[in-house]
Design a protein that fits this description.
The protein has 79 residues and is mainly beta. The chain is built from 1 helix and 5 strands.
């Protein structure tokens, strides 16, 4: 994504939102890698998110220290 098109995180302001995919079910979402805030499809990215990776994995406590980062992957070019 061109630098002028990137969306800055409205929660922490420290990083940009990047497209990711849940490898379990294929659902896509936007993630701030700095604070782990998540925007689901249809969420207003101009407002702070109320979601986290635990939202993406409802019913599964996301545990990055136990290798759960393997359950998500970046989506190149947002596609």
């Amino acid at each position: 994504m061109p630098p002028d098109m990137r969306l800055r995180c409205t929660v922490c302001g420290q990083d940009y939102l990047a497209p990711y995919r849940n490898t379990v079910n294929g659902e896509r979402f936007l993630l701030c890698a700095e604070c782990d805030s998540v925007w689901l499809p249809g969420d207003d990215t101009s407002r702070p998110s109320g979601h986290s990776l635990s939202t993406v994995f409802a019913g599964h406590q996301f545990r990055p220290d136990e290798g759960d980062w393997d359950l998500i992957e970046p989506v190149p070019d947002g596609g």
